[in-house]
Amino acid sequence: MRTRELILYAAAEIFDECGYSGASISKIMDRAQVTQGGMYFHFKSKRSLAQAVLAHQQEFVNFSGGTNGLQKLVDLTFFLARELQNNVLFRASVRLAVEQGEFGGHDDTAYQEWVTEFRALLNEASELGELQADVDEAEFANVLVGAYSGIQVFSNISSGRADLPERIVSMWRYLLPAVATPQARARLSFPADAQRMAA
After folding, report:
1. Which class for 178: exposed (0-12), middle (13-18), buried (19 or more C-beta within 10 A)?
2. Which residues pair with 131 in a beta bridge?
3. 131 phi and psi, to 5 degrees?
4. Shortest CA distance to 96 belongs to which of 21, 39, 180?
């Protein structure tokens, strides 16, 4: 298991740095400092490595926000931004989700898992009376995952995700009036550092 974890982490670093096309088994073996036998005992190909990194996306983050409803959803989006900036395993899995066509993948599981996570928090927000009456939680969860995915890709290209928190502030500034009650919006807060960047 220790060898498998070393290989998975090394693969994530290489996929993050080089993308799927630029990565190679030899680069991953060198980074993990494992033999060819050790590599192929756990993973039979570069494709199987990419699939393993992609499949564990939600396991690479551990969010335990102490709030509820909309505030917890907002907090989660900023937490994910920090993870994209600092967590190579999560960052690589997100990159592979975007690039999976390069290795014959057409799997939206990673996106659907976040839809499910966001929808659960929106359902909670609805029960707390924080959402406007015409909001469809499932539909908005899909919109939010799509918007967030696009924003992080744009931010990565523009600034290496340095401005991602600022962009998330802008996203919420426009989305919240469409879904949240005025009372709920008045109670919400963004991280101080993200607000300073957006000011």
Report:
1. exposed
2. 180
3. -105, 150
4. 21
Q: What global pTM score does this model have?
A: 0.86
Residue in 122, 119, 116 with CA at minimum distance from that of residue 68: 122
Taking each helix axis from N to C terminus, what angle separates 46-55 and 2-22, rounded to the nearest 10 degrees?
110
DSSP conformation class of 66 = S
pLDDT digits (tens, 9 = 90+) for 66-85: 789 999 999 999 999 999 99
In contact, 108 and 142? CB cutoff 8 Å: no
90 Rama sector, left if φ>0, alpha if ψ -120 to 50, beta otherwise: alpha
Helix (H/G/I), strand (E/B), else coil: 180: strand
Q: What is the pLDDT of residues 86-115, one digit of tens each?
A: 998 899 999 998 888 888 778 888 899 999
Token pair 């991602």 in the structure block, residue: 164
* DSSP category for residue 163: T
Q: How far apart are the first and last CA of the chain?
A: 47
Tokens of 52: 């393993």
Residue whose pair of structure tokens reads 């499932």 in the numeric block: 138
